[in-house]
Amino acid sequence: MTKQMARHRLALIGGGNMGSALVGGLLAAGWKPADIAVVERLPGRAAQLGGLFPGVTVSGEMVRADGVVIAVKPYDVAAAANLVAAAGATRVLSIAAGISLATLSTGFGDGVAVVRGMPNTAALVGKGAAAIAAGPSSTEADLVWAEEILGAVGTVTRVTEAQLDAVTVLSGSGPAYLSLVTEALIDAGVLAGLPRGVSEAMVGQVFIGYAALFVESGRDPVALRAEVTSPGGVTAAALRVLEGHGLRSAFLEAVMAGTERSRELGQTGVEVRGA
Ligand SMILES: NC(=O)C1=CN([C@@H]2O[C@H](COP(=O)(O)OP(=O)(O)OC[C@H]3O[C@@H](n4cnc5c(N)ncnc54)[C@H](OP(=O)(O)O)[C@@H]3O)[C@@H](O)[C@H]2O)C=CC1
Ligand SMILES: O=C(O)[C@@H]1CCC=N1
């Protein structure tokens, strides 16, 4: 089956959360469906992807492709990497957390340029915050290629591989922290007497409004906080409690713990061998 298939511009191994977000973004950015293939081993998921993305090749087996995106969980990277040689690809973008460029590059060998990237789930709505790091043999053209792919679903920043651990825990994991804050604020609104639906709507709009104030207006968060905090007022009373419970320090410690964990995963590594 694989042999009869056309050569694709891009094959994504793994059509889960991130893989499907990337396909959606690339199509929205004007890529032709026929240029894209998704290799997905779960038959139910593959059928779903076929319905979502008409014209995109969805296959349980590897296809021929110029470039490959590895979008499987870190423990599945070794198996996915074995498929890269079968694709005949010269470029690989891996978005797997904690799998180092050294591990990837050694596995694929010469002739395959590797770029490591870290997106986040906001890619699902085209508002991702991704970063990329160049592998030992990747060129400017390889980085531009990776930027084109991740840029279809949000922003892309170039960093060193060492900085990618901090990016992973800050923006990669970021939606999880904001989910926790969202849940807590909604519950707090209910505790203070609001119906849950009203509390949810208020909290959602606060996030949207704050994103516009901070990102779109480019204003300093210290100034944004100061202008809400009236002397002897409501906000000052609430902030005192958050500071008293160490919220700021909790975020600092959390990000350092996650960065450490990302480094650990990178050192443990996985056996990656191109077939
Ligand atoms: N989710 C997130 O917030 C982020 C994730 N990442 C990284 O992105 C990668 C993908 O994450 P995510 O999209 O959430 O994962 P998902 O589990 O949603 O998607 C991966 C999919 O790939 C399938 N799969 C696994 N191995 C193969 C294979 N050899 N051939 C074909 N299909 C395969 C899986 O099937 P099965 O279910 O059978 O395993 C699954 O359907 C991870 O490495 C993660 O570290 C990066 C940034 C953020
Ligand atoms: O938790 C994880 O390991 C991955 C990395 C970033 C988001 N999810």
Automatic annotation (TrEMBL):
<feature type="domain" description="Pyrroline-5-carboxylate reductase dimerisation">
    <location>
        <begin position="161"/>
        <end position="265"/>
    </location>
</feature>
<keyword id="KW-0560">Oxidoreductase</keyword>
<dbReference type="InterPro" id="IPR028939">
    <property type="entry name" value="P5C_Rdtase_cat_N"/>
</dbReference>
<dbReference type="InterPro" id="IPR029036">
    <property type="entry name" value="P5CR_dimer"/>
</dbReference>
<keyword id="KW-0028">Amino-acid biosynthesis</keyword>
<dbReference type="InterPro" id="IPR000304">
    <property type="entry name" value="Pyrroline-COOH_reductase"/>
</dbReference>
<dbReference type="InterPro" id="IPR053790">
    <property type="entry name" value="P5CR-like_CS"/>
</dbReference>
<keyword id="KW-0521">NADP</keyword>
<dbReference type="GO" id="GO:0004735">
    <property type="term" value="F:pyrroline-5-carboxylate reductase activity"/>
</dbReference>
<comment type="similarity">
    <text>Belongs to the pyrroline-5-carboxylate reductase family.</text>
</comment>
<dbReference type="Pfam" id="PF14748">
    <property type="entry name" value="P5CR_dimer"/>
</dbReference>
<keyword id="KW-0963">Cytoplasm</keyword>
<protein>
    <recommendedName>
        <fullName>Pyrroline-5-carboxylate reductase</fullName>
        <ecNumber>1.5.1.2</ecNumber>
    </recommendedName>
</protein>
<comment type="pathway">
    <text>Amino-acid biosynthesis; L-proline biosynthesis; L-proline from L-glutamate 5-semialdehyde: step 1/1.</text>
</comment>
<comment type="function">
    <text>Catalyzes the reduction of 1-pyrroline-5-carboxylate (PCA) to L-proline.</text>
</comment>
<keyword id="KW-0641">Proline biosynthesis</keyword>
<feature type="domain" description="Pyrroline-5-carboxylate reductase catalytic N-terminal">
    <location>
        <begin position="9"/>
        <end position="98"/>
    </location>
</feature>
<dbReference type="InterPro" id="IPR036291">
    <property type="entry name" value="NAD(P)-bd_dom_sf"/>
</dbReference>
<dbReference type="Pfam" id="PF03807">
    <property type="entry name" value="F420_oxidored"/>
</dbReference>
<dbReference type="InterPro" id="IPR008927">
    <property type="entry name" value="6-PGluconate_DH-like_C_sf"/>
</dbReference>
